[in-house]
């Protein structure tokens, strides 16, 4: 189904063009069909197959619902009290798992509403491989804690560095945009917009681990286990520029 709605462009487009040419291309893209550089439409209306994998062990579960608020179908990632994880792992484009590539810039956009203001992890830029295959298990982590969206850069050696935060109201929709320039040297960067405000503008960081990285959305926490957690997500998209998402 999603093959009908996802449009392809060369994924290295933004990376290979000069800034001037990229700017000209961006103008062309906005002048021609809308969303022309959207790589992935991960809205819930396309089904849970928009994710390469769904990591929700019973009794946790991913479901789709429509609150009749104009958003159409939305995802609900349900993490029951005492449980740890319910996440959508990476993205599927045209029937196969998308191959992220170091050196590229990816933009992700989505709306999120959470059941509580203490959710634990709601997004990971997760490294491939396990254990000693990592220098960084997750170079970038977002958590909802204490009614804030908090963002960390996790450097090699599991060094957690808080890089920004913004006010988060549970039970209300928030818009998140994340841009990652994926670099295996300390030349990477990422930006986070929360409800239209830039809350993270991090430069000179390592954003691409030895075996590469993939996005994960949902709920994950081994510390916040005494209450049910739900992360509702709408309108997931991935593209090459901020305006795509
Ligand atoms: Ca929707």
- What profile does the largest beta sheet have? 8 strands, antiparallel
DSSP, total strands: 16
Mean pLDDT: 89
Structural class: mainly beta
Write the element-wise H/E pattern from the N-terminal end onward: HHHEEEEEEEEEEEEEEEE
Q: Look up the CATH topology.
A: Jelly Rolls
Q: Show unreliable segments.
A: 1-35
Q: How much helix is in the residues?
A: under 10%
What gross morphology would you assign? Answer: globular
Annotation field: number of helices: 3
What's the CATH architecture name?
Sandwich
Number of domains: 1
Bound compounds? calcium ion
The rounded distance between the terminal residues' Cα atoms is: 20 Å
β-sheet strand percentage: over 45%
Features:
single chain, 245 residues, mainly beta, Jelly Rolls, eight-stranded antiparallel β-sheet, 9% helix, disordered N terminus, binds calcium ion
Describe the structure.
- The chain has helices at 2-5, 13-16, 19-31, and strands at 38-41, 51-56, 61-66, 73-79, 85-93, 96-97, 105-114, 120-127, 140-145, 148-155, 159-167, 174-181, 188-194, 197-205, 213-220, 229-239.
- It has three helices and 16 strands.
- Strands 1, 3, 4, 7, 12, 13, 14 and 16 form an eight-stranded antiparallel beta sheet that branches. Strands 2, 5, 6, 8, 9, 10, 11 and 15 form an eight-stranded antiparallel beta sheet that branches.
- 9% of the residues lie in helices and 48% in strands.
- The protein is globular and about 45 Å long.
- It has one domain (2-244): Jelly Rolls (Sandwich), CATH 2.60.120.200.
- With 245 residues, it is mainly beta.
- It binds calcium ion.
- Calcium ion binds next to β4 and β16.
């Amino acid at each position: 189904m999603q093959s009908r709605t996802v449009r392809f462009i060369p994924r290295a487009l933004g990376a290979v063009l000069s800034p001037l040419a990229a700017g000209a291309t961006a103008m062309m893209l906005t002048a021609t069909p809308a969303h022309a550089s959207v790589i992935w439409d991960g809205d819930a209306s396309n089904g849970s197959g928009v994710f390469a994998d769904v990591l929700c062990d019973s009794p946790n579960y991913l479901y789709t619902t429509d609150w009749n608020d104009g958003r159409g179908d939305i995802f609900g990632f349900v993490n029951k009290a005492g449980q740890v994880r319910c996440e959508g792992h990476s993205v599927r484009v045209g029937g196969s798992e998308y191959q992220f590539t170091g050196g590229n810039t990816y933009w992700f956009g989505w709306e999120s509403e959470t059941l509580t203001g203490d959710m634990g992890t709601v997004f990971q830029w997760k490294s491939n491989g396990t254990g000693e295959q990592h220098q960084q298990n997750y170079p970038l982590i977002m958590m909802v804690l204490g009614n804030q969206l908090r963002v960390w850069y996790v450097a090699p050696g599991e060094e957690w560095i808080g890089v920004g935060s913004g006010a988060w109201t549970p039970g209300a929709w928030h818009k998140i945009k994340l841009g990652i320039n994926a670099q295996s040297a300390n030349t990477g960067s990422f930006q986070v917009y929360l409800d239209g405000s830039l809350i993270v503008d991090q430069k000179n960081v390592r954003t691409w681990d030895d075996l590469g990285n993939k996005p994960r959305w949902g709920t994950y926490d081994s510390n916040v286990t005494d209450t049910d957690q739900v992360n509702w997500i709408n309108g997931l998209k991935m593209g090459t520029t901020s305006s795509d998402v």
